[in-house]
Design brief:
With 269 residues, the chain is mainly beta. The protein has one domain: Sandwich (Jelly Rolls). The protein is 10% helix and 38% strand. The protein contains 3 helices and 16 strands. Strands 1, 3, 4, 6, 11, 12, 13 and 15 form an 8-stranded antiparallel sheet that branches. An 8-stranded antiparallel sheet has the order 2-5-14-7-8-9-10-16. The chain is globular. The chain starts with a strand and ends in a 19-residue tail after the last strand.
């Protein structure tokens, strides 16, 4: 099968290999919760691996004083030269905004961080966070269907792309108060524990089932309009709005961090 869609039960799609009972599935498989306390965090992983596709997850983040906590939702392969696509949500003190930290690893190389505030309270309700992973654009990050970041395939210019390593979906919640909140200045207040994140409405379109360009082209031709290879004008405007108004860090403008020159992809558009 070249174009597989799965929805529904967390029982069917995920395993819970760590957390010692701190991650649990409820409501006949429609709700999954991950919890962090002073002893341990928790998390889950997909039963299958993906090579290209669209992954949607609805998440409701830790409410209240979440300083020092990180809730991660990402795709990753294994090995020393792994590929990875990251959403990480960095908690904050009550009333202060979460930071959405994104990163892309290719061949074990990351350092491609972009950070955003969100235009809504991610603790008040569930919102959809999407990875759209294609051969031509490499990956797109979307929030409630709005593109916030695109990592393009610039392999022709010597930039490694996400094209050959299958990745599993992972999510976890853990304590990282040495760096997560205001650079580590604000520590976790364990009197607020346990901290819980909530997951609903997982959907995937697995495209394709084998690693070949022919399968990708065939699947793309039979897929819905979300399989764009470039942003349409409305999406260009949406991404510009997010990056102009809500982006708080972009590695491609951090000249102090890269005194010998910005990474290659930063100069390619």
């Amino acid at each position: 099968m070249l174009h597989h869609v799965s929805t529904g039960s967390f029982y069917d799609n995920f395993d819970i290999p760590w957390g010692n009972g701190r991650a649990n599935i409820f409501e006949s498989g429609q709700l999954l919760t991950c919890t962090l306390d002073k002893i341990s965090g928790s998390g889950f992983q997909s039963k299958k691996e993906y090579l290209f596709g669209k992954i949607d997850m609805k998440m409701k983040l830790v409410a209240g004083n979440s300083a020092g906590t990180v809730t991660a939702y990402y795709l990753s392969s294994k090995g020393e030269t792994w590929d990875e696509i990251d959403f990480e949500f960095l908690g904050n003190v009550t009333g202060q905004p979460y930071v959405l930290h994104t990163n892309v690893f290719t061949g074990g190389k990351g350092n491609r961080e972009m950070q955003f505030y969100l235009w809504f309270d991610p603790t008040a309700d569930s919102h959809t966070y999407t990875v759209l992973w294609t051969l031509l654009t490499s990956c797109n990050f979307l929030v409630d269907g709005i593109p916030i970041r695109m990592f393009k395939n610039n392999e022709a210019h010597g930039v490694a792309c996400l094209k050959s390593q299958r990745m599993k979906i992972y999510s976890s919640i853990w304590e990282a108060d040495d760096w997560a909140t205001q650079g580590g200045r604000v520590k976790t207040d364990w009197t607020n524990a346990p901290f819980s994140a909530f997951y609903r409405s997982f959907n995937d379109v697995d495209c394709c089932s084998r690693a070949s360009v022919w399968n990708w082209v065939t699947c793309n031709a039979n897929s819905n309009s979300w399989m764009w290879t470039t942003l349409i004008p409305n999406q260009v405007g949406q991404m510009k709005w997010v990056q102009d108004d809500y982006m708080i860090y972009n590695y491609c403008t951090d000249y102090k961090r890269f005194p010998q020159g910005l990474p290659m992809e930063c100069n390619l558009g």
